Amino acid sequence: MVSDDLEMSTGGAEGTEQGTARQAWLRTVAADVARLDRSSSAERAADILRRSITEGALPPGAQLSEIELTEVLEVSRNTLREAFRLLTHEGLLVYKLHRGVFVPELEERDVVDLYRLRRVLEVDVIRGLAERDPELPASRLEPLHDDVEAAEVAALADRWPAVGTANMRFHEHLIGLADSARMDAMTGRLLAELRLLFHVIATPRELHEPYIVRNRGLLELLETRKYEQAAVDLHQYLLDSEQGILEAFRAR
Amino acid sequence: MVSDDLEMSTGGAEGTEQGTARQAWLRTVAADVARLDRSSSAERAADILRRSITEGALPPGAQLSEIELTEVLEVSRNTLREAFRLLTHEGLLVYKLHRGVFVPELEERDVVDLYRLRRVLEVDVIRGLAERDPELPASRLEPLHDDVEAAEVAALADRWPAVGTANMRFHEHLIGLADSARMDAMTGRLLAELRLLFHVIATPRELHEPYIVRNRGLLELLETRKYEQAAVDLHQYLLDSEQGILEAFRAR
DNA sequence: AGAGTAGAGATTGTTCAACAATCCTGCAAG
DNA sequence: CTTGCAGGATTGTTGAACAATCTCTACTCT
What is the pTM of this model? Predict the structure, then answer.
């Protein structure tokens, strides 16, 4: 959701269209300002907790004690509870009234549910490209390109959780092609929940490795504007991925 | 979100019909208990605000003052802020750091975005029925039936906002056929945002009336299991509805 | 001994009052 | 007309306090 660290200042860009260049620059500045402003204590606390959860430090089922965390995070109880609410609505925590907040334990039916949504949304994005944006500029695919390379590099270094992260960012950027704020929000939530599942799985390599090359294949189909083929491939891709997670899940 | 509790051991299967009747009763009791338990002050405050917003008492753009509302709702500032967070994540309020919370002002692009999502999700639900649940029991369509009738009754009484509400519930129940908790949540949010739009529209009758009969037609297609036809109709239905809202919106 | 119950201790839900940080308004100066 | 600067108002955050609820232990009764 963040970590698009300062993309700014890459110089250049005094091409023919000064007006649009300036507009683009204004946009990036506005984005930076928004990122700085976003600092409220509750959201910073939520950031730390989010990382702890998605990286597995807080395993599914764990309870988060309020007094304990106020000391660790150095925020007041009220602020901490606001952070809890934030994460609750991302699906990364669940409230049980008068009992506390817990890291949710997802079940098979959640996997099925999550993947159903992923298939619907992601496949629709691709089909949508064919209809509404067949002249997709290559620059919009750059983030996807970077993600694929990041996954390949991480794989060479045997860093499989990093591969998983890169793969997820690939899908996040894929959804981003739709220019739909609400799809972006939903996807963020879906992928966050999915991440929850990864930590109960023993074999991250088997889980992530096959999709590095498939992501690259998908990207090439997009670059050559074979949208229908990309949609079909992605559908099968997600079915396979779901199956892989379900199997790993049953074998835990 | 919760209320999966007390699903436990209903004493096994005594008479088949007694068993299911008892199960149904247990479910309703569980729902009641959940409703009472859910009482947290923040959620009660959120309920009141939600109604105020969706019924138009708080128009788009309005700012919600904290001190003012603590007096009206008789809750502390902290609890009120928790209610704000709840509504923020439903899309019914937006936070501006150090400035306060506001009822969002949706624009044309939001209409387009919302309807894109609605089309994707709702049409997929129908197509999904064909694949995974062709033997859909008639009882599952009862809520849809009730909604259609409610809309027809309200129309006869010239109560057009009520017609709009009934129409929305129809779509909510339609999504419910998918048995997907996450689709339900997303739809709730999408429809809440859509409601926000209705209040800047001057002619609720023209907006809602055509869809009463179309809802009934859709329902009949589902009852006779003509799923593909229903999917096609629904797609066009949503395109028309989007167009209607956009026109009313531009003419405001 | 085992089941049920009462109560102590711990945790969460909510309130209140205070202070710090930020925004908005109006006014003066260039 | 814009820029810069108080002053007032609103939001962000804290800490302490109390009420409500849950959990676990120890006790009573059969």
Answer: 0.85
